[in-house]
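Sample 3 of the quickstart, ligand thiamine diphosphate:
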Amino acid sequence: MTSSTLEPRTATGMAERRAAVEAAAHRIRRHALFMGEVQGQGYVGQALGAADILATVYTDQLRFRPEDPEWEDRDRFLLSTGHYAIGLYAALAEAGIIPVEELETYGSDGSRLPMSGMSTYTPGMEISGGSLGHGLTVAVGLALGLRYRGNAARVVNFLSDGELDEGSTWEAAMGAAHHRLGRLTAVVDINALQADGATAGVLRTEPVTDKWAACGWRVFRVDGNDVGALLEAFDAAGSGSAVTDDGEGAPAVVLCDTKVGRGVPLLEQREKAHFMRIEEHEWAICNEQLEAGWAARQEASQAKGQEEKA
Ligand SMILES: Cc1ncc(C[n+]2csc(CCOP(=O)(O)OP(=O)(O)O)c2C)c(N)n1
Ligand SMILES: [Mg+2]
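Result:
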């Protein structure tokens, strides 16, 4: 497995930033398949779908010190969806907060990397998230507390579309706008899926853009597997004239339409995608498909670059 530690924001130009994030997203996908294979199952589809979001946040957006995960001025990333922990562990390994070698302990007895995220177990895991629908409420309190203390850290809360079924999410959304928490960003993984089936069939939450706007948020909706679009949305969400130096302003939400299993066609087509059981012989196919897709994309972007130069 390739390993590398990413320093946040080493790249400056948009093309460079995008390339750095895309490479990190690929490694996050690789790590996720590796962890899934060790366990033989898991929330692999979510990690693959959200890899571009996680890479954007950890490679490009957040300020943190890998050697000091408790650094007081760090930006906070709150994963309210505990079952997405596999994706976050991959991102934390990429960020240098946990060792890449530790990923193979995922889901094992005594591991710091349990299947559902636990803040007391894992460095860089800000909250425990097994009970869904609470992350945004914690994020609101945290953002408010940081502002009272004069700390300019950004708070980013990652939610799933299933969490939009929960009343507590909307109470928090209204509270954030009421308190003008301009340094709070919510990011929603709209993968159109929940444990009980398609999101549209469980509870119709659309039009979600209008709902967030009605609660007083600045809203950005993007293809959550398009790194360029993610970078632009996160840049706009994080700063700008919309937020005062004291952090007062409308909070921002980045609504990300993603594809479960993204990057591995075999898994993109799975019907039962919430908790994937993957046969032993299928892991090699998954890894091959991931690498083949990445190689093809690299070739295409190199050819495009040469065309543009010519
Ligand atoms: C408060 C609460 N209610 C129910 C559950 C059971 N549960 C676990 S995952 C899940 C699906 C939630 O939707 P989403 O996160 O969008 O699913 P995914 O995209 O990962 O398939 C549910 C209902 C839970 N963990 N917490
Ligand atoms: Mg979902």
